Amino acid sequence: MIPKISRGSNPAGLVKYLFGKGRHNEHANQHLVACSDDLLESFDFDGRPGESYERIGARFDRRYHVRERKDDPFPRDRRGKHNPGRDHGKDRVWHCSLSIKAGHGILTDEQWDMIVRDYLKRMNILPAGGGSGVTWLAVRHGLSRNGNDHVHVMVQLATDDGWLDTFNDMKGAQQSCRGMERERPEFVELDKSNTRSQVRYRYGEWRRWAEWKARDDYDGPLPWTSLDRSERVRRIAAVAAETMPKQHVGRIVEACAKASKSEDEFIRRVRREGFSIDPRLRKGVSRGSFDSPCQVVGYRITWRSADGWTERFNATDLGSDMRLKELRDGWTHDARSEALAVQEWRASMENRPPFLADGMERKTANLSTHDMERLIDEAFHVAMDMRRAGGDPDAYDKAVRDGLRVFDRLSERYGLEEGFSAEMSEEEFPTVGIEDGIRNGNQGNPRSS
Fold this sequence. Notes:
Blueprint: E1 2-8, H1 11-18, E2 31-35, H2 53-60, H3 62-69, E3 93-100, H4 109-122, E4 136-140, E5 149-156, E6 158-159, E7 162-163, H5 169-183, H6 185-190, H7 197-217, H8 229-243, H9 245-259, H10 263-272, E8 276-281, E9 296-304, E10 310-314, H11 324-328, H12 335-349, H13 369-389, H14 393-414, H15 431-439
Antiparallel strand pairs: 1-3, 2-4, 3-5, 4-5, 6-7, 8-9, 9-10
């Protein structure tokens, strides 16, 4: 988590900014996620301001005005370089944004509520046992322009008992964030691929941000709304693939690990998905002396985007349960599988085709849920391309040929028992039959159509 601290003296102006459109119209779905009890009346149940920004700012400043009447200036006022005009209460508003690095996940409002309260306690702003005496609020927006899930925390440094001590708060903020990353379950969960419902929520919000980002970055001659749907979807998908590779890679590698019965099968499944996987050898072991899986203590996944951008992830980057030591607990261990693992690691290191051309992953009975999702997705796009061809015979024939090539590739990749041939003539394979077969759910041998 990344903290960024600033200070100011205009609470109404800061509240207006937090609930406004932002400097670049990037703010979306601005709403309160947590606040002190004395500010609850200023907001509606949906987290939107229920009063004017000026009234909220005045309510936020009530404890400061008590300090002002007691002629108790913020200690920062005594430092001339920070306040040459000796203005009373200068920098009394403490503002900190907490953000999660783009691509590392998205939290819920409830999670941010607990995180903010924990953070303020670690910063000695809120008492450890809770209680009142401090005025504060936390506002959340949609993802930032850079794709960060984030929240803004605003604190009145004047309290019932005096002033909050913010000396060396930059260092304290870093220490607090690092501590929460190690200890809080929300951040531990972000470090691994999560395929439960929470991921679907994160993916949905991140996908909406990708749509906004694609539209905001578009600078073509035609307006965004004039582009056809397929072109918009292509641009959105490009932004999505380029901005969240860690979660994308983590989910696929986890699916490969769960579907594999042995280490060599895992290596082949990962490579089949288009990733490079390289072993991390034990210290003192070279490529020439590598002859046993026990000499491999980890692995690294290399992901490449369509335009050549490369990112590399160690096993621990994908989650503590994705370490090779953890994965091996669920795999078969015998002389044959260990010998095959050595050969597959060598083939991967040397960028050669898999050593075993007909492994367990190429058996139809061993198709995983992820494999079936890929097959269904490809078949759906083939059917949609044929439907869009409409009444144009040439376009329809081209869609059929392209679809057959897709099925050929799938047959080769997944070892399907019945393949398809893009070279078949129309007499051998009537083009009308394939769409009927897909429409009727017949995904067996289309020659029977």
